[in-house]
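Morning - magnesium ion inputs below, output right after.
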Amino acid sequence: MTHSSPAIFLDRDGTLIAEKHYLHRPEEVEIFPEVPGALLRLMAAGYRLVVITNQSGVGRGYFTMADVDRVHAQMIKELRIQGVVLDAIYSAPEAPDQPSRGRKPSPQFFWDARESLGLDLAHSYMIGDKRVDLEAGWNAGLAGSLLVRTGYGAALEKAEAEGLAPAIVVDNLAEAADWILSRPQVKAP
Ligand SMILES: [Mg+2]
């Protein structure tokens, strides 16, 4: 397979939807208002959209993968109404102390997505609100990682102002899209 499509890798909680403590009910899904428009612009520029989420609530026994799937079905449905199509969602259900193949900051799901979707990781970006999101993007060899100030992002920026380089720090997903779309583009064939 050729690896020719750039992608935007997206954290879920605090990045696409409002951070709610161990969210596991579909009715609690609250997509940030700026998100659909930002994702549409990235799609129009040729980026595939891949969500990579740590869901340790499963490993901790707070909820099940079936709950995670229902939350994702709701998120997919609401985004689709706005015209946004997610190419894939990867979830790591393990708690931090459990062995995990893909839990961020592992780059494994990024590599899985590269193989299944034919992605060009060197021209792809990660957007998230936690340090593990940034590190996962760096570990995967992406062009860059962006920290949004939504979710836990603002607190992280305050706590680690000097430790976040080389992340790009932006207010939210709309500003992340602005920054990425201002970079030289690689057109998908
Ligand atoms: Mg998050």
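Note: The CA atoms of residues 79 and 105 lie 26 Å apart.

O.
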